[in-house]
Amino acid sequence: MPHPSTPTQIRQVEQILPGRPTHDGAGVKLLRVYSYSPELNLDPFLMLDEFATDEASDYIGGFPDHPHRGFETVTYMLDGRMLHQDHMGNRGDLGPGDVQWMTAGRGVIHSEMPQQTEGRMHGFQLWINLPSDEKMCPPAYRDMPSPTMPVVDLLDGSGTVKVIAGTYSNGLDPISGPLQGMTTAPLMLDVQMGAHGQFLETITAGHTAFVYVYEGEAMVGDERISARHLAVLGPGAQVQVNSLESDTRFLVLAAAPIGEPVVQYGPFVMNTRAEIEQAVQDYQSGKF
Ligand code: MN
Hints:
Layout: E1 13-18, E2 20-24, E3 28-35, E4 45-53, E5 63-68, E6 71-79, E7 82-86, E8 91-94, E9 99-103, E10 108-114, E11 121-129, E12 140-144, E13 151-153, E14 159-165, E15 167-168, E16 175-176, E17 187-193, E18 198-202, E19 208-215, E20 217-220, E21 223-226, E22 229-233, E23 238-243, E24 248-255, E25 263-265, E26 268-270, H1 273-284
Antiparallel strand pairs: 1-22, 2-3, 3-4, 4-11, 5-10, 6-9, 6-11, 7-8, 7-10, 9-12, 13-14, 14-17, 15-16, 17-24, 18-23, 19-22, 19-24, 20-21, 20-23, 25-26
The chain binds manganese (II) ion.
């Protein structure tokens, strides 16, 4: 019989996923770090992309009009500017440090286009699933300009934590991000550390959790993770990351699994094949 977990148990790395170069939209080069498959289901997360380039030709085509139904998209910009516009007239002009959290719900048709013709473009797009009873909810936006998200010092003074969603426990002084009250209770932190720093955070037991190192190198639990690799975490109480390089940056993501069937067809993520067919039909007949 296995020993019960102790409260200080560190979550260890179960799998390492390298970002794979690909392109999407109108020829935008990006790294696909994770995408859902029946064999690799980080429920409720569906996808994580990183785009990072100094070459305008890698991003200038942007993502012209395309639909989404049944989940949420989170865009986090580090460098550059992207304009999001949808078919209902919603606009979000995202600059460095800004986040747009879009609940596609029953349907959004939007474009995501760069607002620059030169210079660096760097950011992330994350897809998070919705439970079946929220998949057909009205679309909703939470635009979060950078200053609305708290940035707090790590306890050892080695760096900072930007709290994008959920609550960072910060020892005994919890700091909450602007995004709260969602069914999947997502935690999204962007951590920046100097060399020999330590990040230690308690994550709700049973929540899916992973760390994506996007600059530098770090020990995640007992495993060495280099830049542009995602570390899928196993069960335990705490996430521990020790930086090995002077500019180490990583995202910490966690959320409550939904535990429902996932049927994905491109930008539509539903529970059944019939619901996907309905989504395609609704989109093609202009019902979004
Ligand atoms: Mn989109």
